[in-house]
Amino acid sequence: MKSVFLHPVILLRNITITLVCCLGLSACGLFQTSTTHNPTPVGGQKVVNTAYSQMGKHYRPGGASPQKGFDCSGLVWWAYTVNGYKIPRITSDQARTGVPVPKNLMRTGDIVVFRTGEGPQSLHTGLYAGGNSFIHSPRSGGKVRMESMDIPYWRKNLVAVRRVVR
């Protein structure tokens, strides 16, 4: 077998060319190593962690506490309130609170709003948890859980994203 030996100057040149190419692509946005352009504020992560601490709690119509259980807007309201943020308690009001955010710019802690039927009472809210998932209290007989935003039902029915923590 023939041994392959690269001269140190050639090796250094190849490494340099590789680094320059990577840096050039990074500057063009084709090779991204971080997402620091839109970081999640600590408050948004705290809100999600608070909601996450209630995983498995039973759904309860009108519920807004760990002791009684949660409906969808009760979970969102409680998680924000525990962390010092004042938001409306009712789903239709949560769908208008904060500022609107394009769906492709969701951040951890944003309120996600879904249309689940006709009329103002047919809305459902949850908290975007990152990783294309959200935490919510789904329905009677259900429990607080995390679900993927890629599930066709949720993807099709997402109507708004609202940002409270800036």
Helices and strands in order:
Layout: H1 8-28, H2 42-52, E1 64-65, E2 69-70, H3 72-82, H4 91-94, E3 99-100, E4 111-115, E5 123-130, E6 133-136, E7 145-148, H5 152-157, E8 158-163
Antiparallel strand pairs: 1-2, 3-8, 4-5, 4-8, 5-6, 6-7
Short overview:
With 166 residues, the protein is α+β, with helices and mostly antiparallel strands. It contains five helices and eight strands.
Walk me through the structure:
32% of the residues lie in helices and 20% in strands. The chain has 166 residues and is of the alpha+beta class. It has 2 domains: 8-36, no CATH class; 42-163, endopeptidase domain like (from Nostoc punctiforme) (endopeptidase fold (from Nostoc punctiforme)), CATH 3.90.1720.10. The strands form 2 sheets. Strands 3-8-4-5-6-7 form a 6-stranded antiparallel β-sheet. The relative contact order is 0.17. The model is unreliable at 19-37 (pLDDT under 50).
Helix and strand composition category = alpha+beta
The number of E-state strands comes to: 8
Major sheet: arrangement of strands: 3-8-4-5-6-7
Topology as a string of helices (H) and strands (E):
HHEEHHEEEEEHE
What characteristic shape results from the CA principal axes? Answer: globular
Q: What is CATH's topology name of the largest domain? A: endopeptidase fold (from Nostoc punctiforme)
CATH class bucket of the largest domain: Alpha Beta
CATH fourth-tier homologous superfamily of the largest domain:
endopeptidase domain like (from Nostoc punctiforme)
Q: How many structural domains can be distinguished in the coordinates?
A: 2
Rg (CA only): 22 Å
- Supply the CATH architecture of the largest domain: Alpha-Beta Complex
